[in-house]
Amino acid sequence: MKKIFFLLLVSVFLSCSSESKENLLSLFVITEDLELGENRVVLTALDVDGNTLTDDLRFFIRELESENKVEITDKIISNWPPNRKVFVTNLNFDKTGYWEFLLESNQGLAKATINVKENSKTLGVGDFIEPIITPSLEKYNLSDLTTDINPNREFYKYSLDKALIEKKPFFITFSTPGLCVTGTCAPQLEELKDISTFYDDAIIIHVEIWKNFKEVMHKGDLSLGQLNESVKKFGIETEPWTFLVDKNGIVKKRYQGFVEFSELKKDFDYINN
Question: Residue 266 maps to which CATH number?
Fold first, then answer.
């Protein structure tokens, strides 16, 4: 696994976007770790000045070089920190290989290509969670568990293995707000704090990316980072990542990057009923 976590938006934008030379309209696929089956996919469209576009847009998908394209009609607009609008959709890929997203608007056309693999690097929907011991207040002080400047103690009450014993749905999120290069880690924790307030008995676990984050912060060198074991087990290479796990320890939803309270609440309500 890579030692340094790369800038999610930049890395994805560079590898999974294209731009029309005529109108300089850009389409970006933010979610780059895709596999066979159902995937939560985040898309965004920008004009030549970098402004987010939301109106009069039509999205399509097709296998690369295929003539048959299918319109993506089931999507929502979500707010992405700091001031972006993105489209969130759920897509079911039935074949591996390269797929092409197409954007059509009155400002022109744009395309973006992604690679769908048989299995994602990261723990996927339908996978069982191993009873991993994650850092918690059982063994550590709060200051040794998080870089969050305003932490919620409840997020560090449970180790992952203990949460599984409870036999109830829970969220586990991986991020390092004090060292986050994407700028979405701290906002993501705030969304989860809202979930914790709304559901006062919900189990939410936050795991820092680096187990020696104090050393990394003190020396200002990410290359010194030592990954928490659970980060390795989940196959995480970007941040933040959040997972919704059901009472049987099965991943029901996974969210690469930022996800709003409304989407988290909707999914939690669905599996909690």
Answer: 3.40.30.10
